[in-house]
Amino acid sequence: MAGSINPLTCCRPCLRRLSGRSASRTLSTTPSRRKHGALPTFTPTSSPELDTLLSTFRSNIFLPSHLITAQRSLLYRPKNHALLTNPDEPATAKVGGEVLQLQPLNHLRDEPDTRSSFAKMLELMKEGKDWANLPGFLEGLKTAKRKLKGWQIEKLVRKANACGRQGVVLVCLQRVERTGVGLWHPNVARECMLGAVMRAMEGGWTKESVEQGWRLGRQYWELTWDTRHQRTDGGNVKVDVGVVGSMVLLNAARVVKAGEGIEDVEKFAQRLTRLLGPDWAEEMRAKESKGWVEANHDLVIYGPVLKGMQLAQTVLGKDSELGRDIGERVEKDLEPMLQKALALLNANTPQDGPRRGAKLYGDLAEADL
Question: What sign for the dihedral angle of Cα 124, 127, 131, 132?
Answer without folding.
Answer: negative
